[in-house]
Structures are given as C-alpha cells and as structure tokens.
Amino acid sequence: MKQKNTFSKIGFILATAGSAVGLGNVIRFPFVMGESGGGAFFLIYMISILFMGASLMLTEMFLGHQGKAAPASTFEKLATHNNTLWKNIGWGISSFSNIIFSYYVILLAWIVAYIWLSASGGLPHTAADADQIFTNVRGDMLATFVSGGLIFAASFYVVAKGVVNGIEKLNLILMPVILIIFTGMLLYSLTLDGFYEAVVFMFHIDFSKITLHVLISAIGMSFFTLSLGTGIVLAYSASLPEDVNFVRSIVYIVLLDTSIAIVSGLMIFSFLFTYNGDPSAGFGLVFITLSTVFSKLGVWGEILGVAFFTSLLFAGITSSVSMIEPMLKTIHIRFNVTRAKAAVILSVPTAILSISVVLSFGGYLGDGGTLLDKLDYVLSNVLLPFGALMTTVFLGWFVEKKRVVAVLQKQLGHFFSLWYSIVKYIAPIALILVLFSLIGLI
Ligand code: PHE
Hints:
The chain is an all-alpha fold. It is about 80% helix and about 0% strand. The chain has one domain (about 10-440): Orthogonal Bundle (Hydantoin permease). The chain has 18 helices and no strands.
C-alpha cells in the first residue's frame, strides 16, 4: 500500500522531470545547440547527459533515498567522517535553488505579461516595437509585483502542502498539459516551410565548432538542465517509494527533458525561419523575436502565443516549486516546525531578494537592472557546479562503499563499477574543469 508522504512512481518521475524541464530547455538549449556545432554539440551533450548527468542524478537519488531527510541531515547522517562540515555544505547547497527561485519568479511574471499581450492582440509588429515592449514589461513594477507575487505565493503554497498533496498533484496536472501543448505545436511546425531549415540549423554536424569551451559548456548544460547540484533531486528522493527502479526512472526523466528541449528548438526555429525572424540569443529569442513572429499570424498567432507562453509558464512553475523544496524541508526538519511554518519563514528572505530584483529593473538600486544577470551568473556558473562537485565527492569519498554496493549493485549490474568510477573520479575532474571554465580561469 502507498505510504502517506511518499511519491507514487509516476509522481516522482513527473515531479523530477517537471523540475528539469524549465526555461533552460526552451530558451537556452535550442540556441546554444544551433550555434555550437548543431549535431556535433548534441552528440557531446547526450554523451555528457548519459555519463555525467545520469550518474549524478543516480547519486542524488541514492543519497536522498538512503537519508530520507532534508539534504543537510542526509549529508550529516551518511558521512563516514567530517559530519558537521557536510551538514553545513548541505545547508549551503539547499539554499542555492531558493536564490534561483527569487529571480526565476520574475521571469515567470514577464511570461504572464506575454500571455496577456498575446491574448489582447498586443504583441509587437516590428523589431523596434518588440524591444520597446520588452523594456516596458521589465520596467512595469506594478504588473511584475502582482503576477510575480501571485506565482511566488502559489509556489510556496504548493510546497507547504507537502510532497504528495502539493508537489505531486501539481505535476500530475501540469506536466501532461505541457506535453500536449508541445506536441500540438510540434505538429503545427511540421506544416511550416521553415521546418527543414530548423532541422538543419539544429542538427547540422560541424565538428570544427567543438572547442574545449563548447565541450565544457555541453557538460555544464547537462547538469543545469537536470537541476543537479542543488539538492532538488536529493530532496525529492527522500520521498521515493521503497521499491523504485532508479535506472528506469532516470531514463524516463532524461527522455522527457531532452525531448522537450529538442521539440522547443524545432518549433521556435521553424517559426523563425518561416517568417524571417532573426535567431537571437538569450531571452531575446522568445520575448522579442518569437513574439514578433506570432503577431504576423493574426488570430492564429494570438492562439499560438497564448499556448506557447502558457506552456512556458507551466514549465517554469513546476521548476520553481522544486526550487523551494530542499530548503523548506531543511527548515521543517531542523527546527521541527510544520511545512506551513517553514514556508512562511523561508518566504521572507526569498521575497526580499525577489523584491530587490524587481526594484533593480524598475530603475532603483542604480544597477541598470543587472541584479538578475549577476545572480544568474553566480548561480549557474559557480554555485551549481560547486554543488554538483560536492555531491559527487561526498558519495565517492565520504559514504561507505558497502552501503552503495548493497543498494545499487543489483540495479546496475556490470555498469556498477563504471558508474562508481565516474562519480568518484571522472565527474569531479570534469566539474572542476567546468567550474574553472565558467568563471573564466580556462
Ligand atoms: N532545470 C531547469 C531548466 O532547465 C533549471 C533549474 C536549475 C531548475 C537548477 C532547478 C534547479 O530550466
């Protein structure tokens, strides 16, 4: 019988995939892939997902499943030595995703603005309009406060409700909706003239673009896209059902994450190439270029715009909910308070950060709206790879091997030794390279 407070198998897969599938898949992946060698980049990215990403995901799942607690207590409980140090590292790692949440929620507020613009016929018609509208959306503090505040409160509410009644339920509803919208949009883009060009842009094989940097960025991206290094998978896995098959769950999660990234790319670029949009990088790709393309399609464009930005919002919400869980669980267990109280406590510092980001875009703080970029830079380039590095080092060097063998040898069979050496040696070295490269030392 299903225990209370334990995910169902499908609930766990969808919740973890929900965390993985986010703005990164839709906004970042397609562009980086097209620019960095297309099919050649994809090959390296997939190898990195299969060997590094999946290995680290298995590591976090194993730790969470064994510790059955918040990341900090799990590290403390499972360490063979230096337990207090590891407890503190666990606290640190758990805080990373809350910092991401504080600015992610602002991006989601902008997406709400674009749903509204699509529905009300307000999408931009020219590139200059598009720039202006994007600037207006970012500077509109009232709208950002209202929709950002609602998403903020709703996300905390869902996590406070608990793993089964909150997180699992949300993902069981939103993930199928996201999959249906994406499938519909893929089918639509198949009918567009630019589809073939989109396939070529994304999958042309150009090994000459594969430099050391591209290689490292593929590895870094494979961690980011699976939400690794933040204690999220570790925290979710504390509520895994006993008889779960780790490997099978990972296969489904990786398949979902990768297919959404590819479909997003095919869809976005089919539109751009059909309607002569310029593939630009970063947020500009959807907020500026794609929204201008939608406006050329009349009523269809309005419908597509609402569908696209809504699925993006949902994908973002399932990720933002996951960002709250590690720290909320930590406070809930450490201070022995209810989840609701933990949510209230945690929401205060998080809200202060979010408000600072909004003020920064509203022209206050005198930083030209760059607080979000700075936070994102530090998180994605320094703290996440650091979190991932610590997690692999922990399993490889601070957890009794006997314990790992007892649980995973049977599931992994011949692959156990390969996985264990990846986690113990290869992944830490690769992560140190990623870290050095991202902060500009290589
Ligand atoms: N995986 C999410 C994405 O691709 C981003 C994320 C990173 C979410 C880290 C949670 C933690 O958009």
